[in-house]
Amino acid sequence: MADATTPDPNDQAPTQEPQATDEKLGDPGLNALRSEREARKTAEKQLRDATAKLAAFEDANKTEAQRLTDNASKAEQRAQQAEQRLTDALTRQAVMNAAIEAGTIDAETTTLLALAGGAVTLDDNGEVIGAKKAIDALTKSKPHLFRPAGAGTRDATASGTQASTQSMDDWLRGIN
C-alpha cells in the first residue's frame, strides 16, 4: 500500500483510455471495470485516512498515558518526601522530649547526637521507638550534657517554687 504522499502505481485516472485487453469487455464491461477501479481507489483512500487517524490517536493516547505515568510518579515521590519529613519531625520531637525529661543542658545537641546513632525509628503505628533508650545511652556516654541528679533547674518556676518577695539587697545580706 502506498502512503499519502507517494502515488500508487496501480491507480489509474478515471479519464484514462481503456487498455487493449479491456476493449474485449465491451461498453458494459468497461463501465463495470471503471466503477470497480474507482471504488478500489476510494476504499484505499479511506483506508489510508483511517490508518493515519488511528496512528494519530495511538500517539495521542501514548503521550497522554506517558504524561499520566509521569504525574503519578511525581505525586508518589512528593508523598514519600512528605512522609519522610513527618517521620523525621516525629522522631526528632520524641527524642527532644526524652532529652528534656532526662535533664539535658542542651536539648538541640543532645537530640542531634541521639538521632545520629540511628537507633530511633518509627513503627507501623506511627509510634517512635528507641528515643528513651538513645537518651539513656547518652547520659552514660556523655554525662556532661545532662544536669547531675538532684540539681535544680535554671527556671525557678519550672521546679514549682515561687519567686521570693525579698529584694536582691536583702538576699545578698542573708548570704553571709
From TrEMBL:
Residues 1-31, 62-82, 146-176 are annotated as: Disordered. InterPro entries: SCAF. Residues 62-77 have a biased composition (Basic and acidic residues). This is Phage scaffolding protein. It comes from Tessaracoccus palaemonis. Residues 7-19, 156-168 have a biased composition (Polar residues).
